[in-house]
Amino acid sequence: MTDLIQISDDRGVRLIRMNRADKKNALNAPMYDAMAEAIERTATHRAIRCLMIAGAPGAFCAGNDLKDFQQAARDDGGLGDSVIRFLHALAGNEKPLVAAVQGVAVGIGTTMLLHCDYVVAGTDARLSTPFVSLGLFPEAASSLLMPRLMGHRRAFALLVMGQPLNAEQAKECGLVNAVAAPAEVDALAMTAAIQIAQLPPDAVTLSRQLMRGAPDEIHKRIDDEAEQFRVRLRSDEARAALDAFFARKK
Ligand code: COA
How close is the Cα of 24 to the center of ligand 1, in Å? Predict the structure, then answer.
């Protein structure tokens, strides 16, 4: 486990905090593995009744580490085993999942929210999925879950056109439950997580299972998207967009 991901258990809640603020919490393979493991291990951990994912002030998560995508493009690779493991851990997870979103939430920083049950966002939140403008392809079963949540047209604007959402717009789309001042986001999300953790756990699990339905379709979509993603990563469009990100002048 790496300190780029901090894990702590308190009052029935497992808090998973992304802790790479200097890179805006861009996720690399060890971070995905640490988060996947933290989620997977709660399956048999009855005392943990709710999970919460949080980031840093100003940066929930800037998406996948684009240097890793550059490397994968050179190696003819795809999303990578650690990413896929994390996505399946999210889809297969049976504990309620709360997210606290401050600042930027790019790519998987936004699509992981589709697997959450309760999301608090700061007034500074900016959610975006610029997959297509990077020459890439949606992941995390977002091509299934995003239109299902907000309807095709809004999902198209976000997923294909790359139009970002602020916190209020994300709330309107059903992606966010509550909007708060940035400094209050984590505490508000934790309050919700503790409330969930105090509910009768079996009743919560069964209700959640029925509401979400069988996860098979979601697991399959994660794999189908990953196949397309691998193809897209090798494209000239993606290579050029990734090079342009690191060549940009600040
Ligand atoms: N992968 C790798 N490094 C990243 C990154 C990512 N996804 N996002 C940010 N970083 C790095 C930057 O390269 C920079 O590193 P440096 O200080 O060594 O130069 C550092 O994090 C800070 O980022 P910066 O761009 O200076 O911060 P900002 O506040 O101006 O912008 C973002 C923040 C998130 C809007 C911007 O960094 C960005 O667009 N990142 C890419 C997001 C993305 O496309 N993700 C993948 C989606 S599929």
Answer: 6
